[in-house]
Design goal:
The complex is a heterodimer. Chain A is α/β, with parallel strands linked by helices. Chain A is built from 13 helices and 12 strands. In chain A, strand 9, helix 9 and strand 10 form a beta-alpha-beta unit. In chain A, helix 10 packs parallel to helix 13. Classes of the chains: A alpha/beta, B mainly alpha. Chain B: Keywords: Cell inner membrane, Cell membrane, Membrane, Sugar transport, Transmembrane, Transmembrane helix, Transport.
Chain lengths: 326, 347
Amino acid sequence: MASNDMTSNETAKHGPGGAGTGAHGAGPDIDQETLLQHEKDTLTHTPVHLMELEAVGKHYGNIIALTEVTMAVDMGRVTCVLGDNGAGKSTLIKIIAGLHQHDEGTFKIMGEERRLGSPREALDAGIAAVYQDLAVVGLMPIWRNFFLGSEITIGRGPFRRLDVKRMKEVTKSELAQMGIDLRDVEQPVGQLSGGERQCVAIARAVHFGAKALILDEPTAALGVKQSGVVLRYILQARDRGLGVIFITHNPHHAYPVGDRFLLLKRGKSIGYYDKKDITLEELTAQMAGGAELAELAHELEAMGGHGELVDQVQAEVAETTGQTPR
Amino acid sequence: MTTLIKPPPALDERVGRRSMVANLLGRPEIGALVGAIVLFIFFSIVAPVFLQANSFATVLYGSSTIGIMAVGVALLMIGGEFDLSAGVAVISSALTASLFSWYFSTNVWIGVGLALVVSLTIGFVNGWILMKTKLPSFIVTLATFLMLTGLNLALTRLIGGSVATPSIATMDGFASAQAVFSNDFIIAGVDIKSPVFIWIILVAITSWLLLRTRVGNWIFAVGGDANAARAVGVPVRWTKIGLFMGVGFCGWVLGMHNLFAFDAVQSGEGIGNEFLYIIAAVIGGCLLTGGYGSAIGGAIGAFIFGMANKGIVYAQWNPDWFKFFLGLMLLLATIVNLIVKRRADSK
């Protein structure tokens, strides 16, 4: 029954985008179709995951920041990591992005156990992180930001120089492909809106061959409409065959785009679900804790407006994916 | 299929047409350029001597002694750091070359080579301590400034027995070193000193480096947002250490000029000059917070400084006014920069 579900789901997702099997074929030897062929339970039973964490833990001195976290990331799938402030989300992504190293458990990339020493190493392994506030350098033009750290050069030895023309062209076309309405690539990134800035960072990661994309609270600082736009790019990245890790504290943003949900609380995993096993209400309830939530919902309702916001976001997402929000 | 034809890249309603002028005004050094032109016209009127080729060469020479350092300091400021030890480090370099050659009676060039090593090491140590401790560069280089000031005085007295170094004019290699670091080129009857050429070459190379190479991209990035730069794989630590070593290199060039323009060095010199270099860079449009500026801007800033310095003399005013003039210049230039930048960005 599960496999039937998967197949129909697959066509629904890849149909309109047109980026289905073709995009996967271009990837490494394992593609999404074979990966999901014998899928029984996506949580525990797949042949090889793009990325797999098992009982991973991290402590700073005597402070335990993260313990016993298990999750998996696959190509063309969105894994959401949910949790409140201080739940350990940042520590988790820092381990995956190579900024910190884990002390416990195993971290596998394409089935191979790894320990990433630096962001550069993570990038080389195909893992790109897009951080909420440190994604880009505000004063620098868009094209310089796009290629920062991986500049295209021509010439040799002391005459090696930037291929400015090429970089500008690539920036323009890559951003156009992400559907970003671009003004001018010479513009400083600081002049873009928060959502556009995120998108530049996402497009950059996609262009540089990221297989896995970590998005750290991309919607946290954004308005409703901008959040919707960013969610759309998440789905676009997914349809291009990337494994996406979407970190957020907002279940209303996570649920419509996610395939799997890892819930963190005080450094521990309090649940890991496949989308078919959980509803938005349950997810929200799990995150806040039942009684607390009921009280909060009551309060919010009294204040008004919250439901409206949620509806708006969901409508935006539904529009782009063809999925009906629950 | 008319649908395949893309509509002409409809100009976004968010972007008004930016004229060439507005684009030009967006350059970091434009405020300084305007200031330099105004100052030039001003001195041409009040002191006609100013326009003579020979006095202009003198102005250029004066500018170059600030400008050579301002290039390194401007790059460092774009990279988001300060170097308060730059002024005395110049003297440290000159002292090293002269005292070493004199004490061991070696060829002067060996001293010159050692001075380069010392200068680069001072830069490296500044950068390395900064990156290791994460202290502000203001504190770290203030400490090296004080230490170098003390070392300059103490070691010179210890080795040479006086506050100035003994003359090395008669030593092997002095003439050839002087030919490189402090030569006079007579071009069309005008005497132009070699630092002017070194300065122009340095500005050209660093401009190219800054705007057209990977390293240049990294310099802007580490100054603009070091964390973002690190996250995309820019070697932040080495970029910053490299920038400090660049200042060290410029200090060596100027130190060698100071030494070979005469044949001895005063050990107490150089104090306060670090501010002149920073002022030149700021007048030239470098942001104090990093991530913005240009090498040419630093050069123009140094030129403004040189004009004000010599112009006052040519206008036969009391040189006591110079510092006041300099302060006013700094204030005006930064205000102009601010206004120009705001206008260019809002257009």
